[in-house]
Amino acid sequence: MKKIHVPVLLQETIDSLNINPEGFYIDCTLGDGGHSFEIFKKLSPNGLLISIDQDQHAIDFVKEYYKDEIKENWVIEKSNFAKISEIASKHARKPDGIIMDLGISSRQLEESYDRGFSYLEENEPLDMRMDEELGVKAKDLLVVLPEKELTKLFTIYGEEKFARKIASEIKKRITHINTVGDLTRLVYRVVPAAHQSSKNPSRRVFQALRIAVNDELNSLKQGLDNSFEILNINGRISVITFHSLEDRIVKDYFNNLVDSGKGVLLYENVIAPTDNEIRENPRSASAKLRTIVKIK
Ligand SMILES: C[S@@+](CC[C@H](N)C(=O)[O-])C[C@H]1O[C@@H](n2cnc3c(N)ncnc32)[C@H](O)[C@@H]1O
């Protein structure tokens, strides 16, 4: 098995944590392990790293890929990061740094185990569950949600201008929509050609469905709240976001901590990838890194 995901803002994220070799760190979004391994390399045997991912395939990949490197002080657990307090409470110390590199990994897009995360994988079913123990798949949402709710979902989570037309067409043709290709062809038909830029017109609908299936924004809010609660004084939380919905949540959450005197921002402005990083890894283009330091 080879690595697929290229870690985004890697050096910047590691720098933001100001790693103490004896410290305790939690990577909430293991993925292919890029950020985790870089943290782990900086730890002494007294340091501790816990890496979390809700996707069993990510856990299996990292455990195999890093099998010669993983020691007792690198603990890997399948969970939703919303439950970070439960996971951390098994250890008699408070974390000094927590990172979240949000969204989906390149592995999930390119080797999805038939979950249809990518609008390019025409023959895959509309599933989109990162955690396959979750009950509701993307296709279930298309079936169960009334047209009005589907419109809202595409508008709010996808910021899709043609949400109403797409939702209406989906409901009319629901028995014919089973695969990624069925949905992308429908979107191509519904979105006027003049609005189809060089980017795939289905990308917003796919983003919206993925956010809903995985309840991503609520997990993020809970994950941030619980992370700050368990963090050591002077500890740091660094979050990389990829779209405006998640970035707004992080920005507002951090600003509230600053206003209430509990935290300070490490950077006045967000940290974004360099032109060079974007050239080498176009998926990094929309990334934004924000870091808060807990002072109270
Ligand atoms: C962008 S990737 C992380 C890539 C990783 N930093 C690396 O360098 O390889 C995001 C990962 O977070 C996981 N994930 C997303 N939301 C999660 C959540 N609420 N709880 C746990 N894992 C989550 C996804 O399954 C995915 O593997």
Concise synopsis of the structure shown:
It is an enzyme of class 2 (transferase). Helices cover 42% and strands 12% of the residues.
Percentage of β-strand residues: 5-15%
Helix coverage percent of residues?
A: 40-55%
Intertermini distance? 44 Å
Strand order in the largest sheet: 3-2-1-4-5-7-6
Name of the CATH class of the largest domain = Alpha Beta
- List low-pLDDT spans: none
Which architecture name of the largest domain does CATH use?
Answer: 3-Layer(aba) Sandwich
Basic shape: globular
Protein structure class: alpha/beta
Mean pLDDT across residues: 96
Which ions, cofactors or small ligands are bound in this entry? S-adenosylmethionine
Indicate the CATH topology of the largest domain. Answer: Rossmann fold
Question: How many β-strand stretches?
Answer: 7
Series of H and E elements: HEHEHEHEHHHHHHHEHEHE
The CATH homology group name of the largest domain? Vaccinia Virus protein VP39
Helical element count? 13
Radius of gyration: 20 Å
Number of self-contained structural domains: 2
The main β sheet shows up as: 7 strands, mixed
GO molecular function, one term: rRNA (cytosine-N4-)-methyltransferase activity
Binding site for S-adenosyl-L-methionine: 33-35, 53, 81, 101, 108
EC number: 2.1.1.199
Family: Belongs to the methyltransferase superfamily. RsmH family.
